[in-house]
Amino acid sequence: MRRGEKNLITDVAGLRVGNASDAQLKSGVTVVTADAPFVVSCHVMGGAPGTRETDLLAPDKSVQAVDAIVLSGGSAFGLDACSGVAESLRAAGRGFAVGAALVPIVPGAILFDLLNGGDKAWTTNPYADLGRAAWAQATATPDLGSVGAGTGATCARQKGGLGSASLVLESGVTVGALVAANPVGSVTTPGGRHFWAAPFEIDGEFGGAGVDPRSGLILSEPSRKLEAMGKAGNTTLCIVATDARLSKAQCHRISIMAHDGIARAIVPAHTPHDGDIVFALSTGEICVSGDAVSDIGTAAAHCVARAIGRAVYLARPAAQDMLTTWSQENH
After folding, report:
1. Minimal CA–CA distance to 199: which of 191, 190, 184, 189?
2. Is 0.90 surpassed by the pTM of this model?
């Protein structure tokens, strides 16, 4: 395997990522879309998820493809971002045809960032507008770090963010991941310099600090997030993608396998207070055998772990932050 050209989920040809951020709100929205519908399934392993339209992604449900996936801050309020994206898709003539009607199917998931110091005293829910803006700004070269759904994200010890990574398999199949990292747990080992995901890092993509040389590292240090907020706001949201032609059932299996990447990069992971979810999508460009699912799922987990490391590494400081960034602590 080798890293993709851009080291982004958009190394999967045809995919675009749009981000919309509100610095005062300290929150935002990220959208993954493409010119043509794609097959998607998902798997939730966190104990406190917030989702929309995810039941339709089960292999036995009737909808076979969607036009966009939304990741948003804002907790339950952020689910309204999906409505903004759906309105944009409908205006563009996109959606699931039901007779003469077009019904865009826009699955999404949210993270909790309501206690991160931003101004949440709105009178009108801002997330539908942020969803529309994110869809309109979709590009093959999105920014990472403190943008989109990662704008106000935090981890146990430092700011979280939006991250991405990719791999190209020997077969020519491309696999990528996009994450909004906002977990209960820590992405760094005690001391805050070394990433739990360090064994999977490629070419210093999240600082090149290497593997922590100490052994017996079971739990991280006390959570600064919990101390700063009085109550943790959490969840890691992931989208993995491939250009291999897969069924919904195969995408579902890959979404399960890709959760390993969360466990490799965050300690603890999949807690009762996280809403950890992985969406897995296929653009269907390359025909593969059924045996390819194992390799694609393995690559997806590697990409998720690396994307989480990049999300934290690329986070930027901003006014009114309650936590410092990894770069502030280590440079």
Report:
1. 189
2. yes
